Amino acid sequence: MKLNQLESAILATLIWFDLFQWPLKLEELWQYLYFFDNKKDSSFKKSFKEINTDLENIRQVLEKNENLKRVVELKEEFYFLKGKSDLVRLRQERENISFKKLKKAKRVARLLSLVPFVKMISLSNVMGKNNFSKESDLDFFIIASKNRIWTTRFFAVSLIEILGLRPKPNHRKDKICLNFFLSEDNLNLESMALKPYDIYLTYWIHQLIPFCDKDETYKKFLKVNDWTRKYLPNIVDESNLINFQQGKKSSSKKGFLERFLCCLQLKFMPKILKEKVKEDPQAVIINDKMLKFHLQERRKKYREKFEEQFRVISEN
Hints:
Layout: H1 5-18, E1 24-25, H2 26-31, H3 55-64, H4 66-71, E2 72-75, E3 78-81, H5 86-112, E4 118-123, E5 138-144, H6 149-162, E6 176-183, H7 199-206, E7 209-214, H8 217-224, E8 243-245, H9 256-268, H10 271-279, E9 284-286, E10 290-293, H11 299-314
Helix pairs in contact: 1-11, 6-9
């Protein structure tokens, strides 16, 4: 199948969200349009600015391109890969489930916003934003004040523990996972991106659902991560903020409490996390700028699935 750069981007976007069983409306397909260099020929060297990525042009391509019409279907208002019409009903079911989960996430975010030195709180474990299943837990991504990441984590985890919301091995439904903390002076995630491209992280940044924002931290986070826009030229970030206030000023020096809580948490941290730092430094990161605890690092696996599906479909 011979596709130009825009047609490949349309197909790539639909394939990516298909991995998460999420059909797209035309407006969503336009917004999340993903460009990646899947070939080495000159046709893929054209600047994205030279390509017409307007919504109406995308509609025309979907309606007129014979190659895409063979592999893409439209049902009601949703586009999806051929033979996946059942995903429309599944999306509608998950949107209803997500409504209740988001209400709970907002309530928890309100409480966590009271934790000392919290700068931003967002939900982070969905591709499709409202794509929750009944058994889904709720992953929170928290940004903390400079030199206060360990203090913030200690009080946040303690609060979730007191509320009985920490996940257990066999009980994760609706529980709160606090597995990613970032310091406000380390907002750029490009250095941790997989090479040559990291489609998962790129979408993850723009699929966050922010609930609490202090000192425009969310805006700053998006600004320093604008490297993602070379892949997502049409991205429009939406906000669900429930709290917008100035954070309390804190000393930029690392105090005794921060050092003490760092040592305390490291002492009682599960051995498996410490071992994972050496085994897979992309999955678990432990330092004074970033605390990332993902025992199952999914980015590489999903990129491989994406590339394989793109290859199979585009070579037909």
